[in-house]
Amino acid sequence: DSGVTQTPKHLITATGQRVTLRCSPRSGDLSVYWYQQSLDQGLQFLIQYYNGEERAKGNILERFSAQQFPDLHSELNLSSLELGDSALYFCASSVGQGSNQPQHFGDGTRLSIL
Amino acid sequence: GQQVMQIPQYQHVQEGEDFTTYCNSSTTLSNIQWYKQRPGGHPVFLIQLVKSGEVKKQKRLTFQFGEAKKNSSLHITATQTTDVGTYFCAEKSSGGSNYKLTFGKGTLLTVNP
């Protein structure tokens, strides 16, 4: 158990819809990262927050947004969903904000777009 | 953009055989991390390498960082069925964002008992 909690575990929805994925980091971790994992693209970094502030952005679409709240949990919002958004979405956390920090991953949310 | 090439993409071995996966970058790296993802699981941090030529061992796993800090390898001696999974390297290039790690596409290891 990594200590990172992601909900829901599975999500099935239709094209054009909007969903929110939730992540609670390990106790004491201030950084939260979001990744998208699909078969053909591997593990793609989306965005990182540290103590409520955005720190780094990766290949995140404009239809996607995220935030980190004062209690350090984070939400990833995906809107105008397309078939290609079907993937496993991981949240990870680390103590600090630098790229030299080991990241601890949650179990992921599997998103299926019908 | 920053590219990390990981080879091979797949490797199937008989239990007891050795296994090696390689990560190669076009740019000099500040550090490199290795993760393992079991089938149906999530990535789990294994180790971080920072120094040029660094070698670290964890039981049957040996991790190396190249002298030029542009490549790294993970070697498993005498594989066991518990080694099955996808091994990812994750890199941060020198001069790049201080926060962003780029993951390779991973090497899927399967072990025949």
Textual characterization of the structure:
The complex is a heterodimer of chains A (114) and B (113). Chain A is mainly β and 114 residues long. Chain A is built from no helices and eleven strands. Chain A has strands at residues 5-7, 10-13, 19-24, 31-38, 42-50, 53-57, 64-68, 74-78, 87-94, 104-105, 109-113. In chain A, the strands form two sheets. In chain A, strands 2, 4, 5, 6, 9, 10 and 11 form a seven-stranded mixed beta sheet that branches. The mean pLDDT of chain A is 94. With 113 residues, chain B is mainly β. In chain B, 0% of the residues lie in helices and 57% in strands. Chain B contains no helices and eleven strands. In chain B, a hairpin with a 2-residue loop joins strand 6 and strand 7. Chain B is globular and about 45 Å long. The interface between A and B is medium-sized, with 24 and 22 residues.
Q: What is this structure's SSE topology?
A:
The complex is a heterodimer of chains A (114) and B (113).
Chain A: E1 5-7, E2 10-13, E3 19-24, E4 31-38, E5 42-50, E6 53-57, E7 64-68, E8 74-78, E9 87-94, E10 104-105, E11 109-113
Chain B: E1 4-7, E2 10-14, E3 19-25, E4 29-37, E5 43-49, E6 55-58, E7 61-65, E8 71-76, E9 85-93, E10 102-103, E11 107-112
Parallel strand pairs in B: 2-11
Antiparallel strand pairs in B: 1-3, 3-8, 4-5, 4-9, 6-7, 7-8, 9-10, 9-11
Mean pLDDT of chain B comes to 92
| Quaternary organisation of the protein chains | heterodimer
Residue share in helices of chain B? under 10%
Biggest sheet details of chain A: 7 strands, mixed
Structural class of chain B: mainly beta
Number of helices of chain A: 0
- The count of β-strands of chain A is 11
Q: Which series of helices and strands of chain B comes N to C?
A: EEEEEEEEEEE
> What is the end-to-end distance of chain B?
41 Å
Low-confidence stretches of chain B: none
Largest sheet data of chain B: 6 strands, mixed
Number of strands of chain B: 11
Overall geometry of chain A: globular
Q: Give start-end ranges of low-pLDDT stretches of chain A.
A: none
The class by helix and strand makeup of chain A works out as mainly beta
Order of helices and strands of chain A: EEEEEEEEEEE
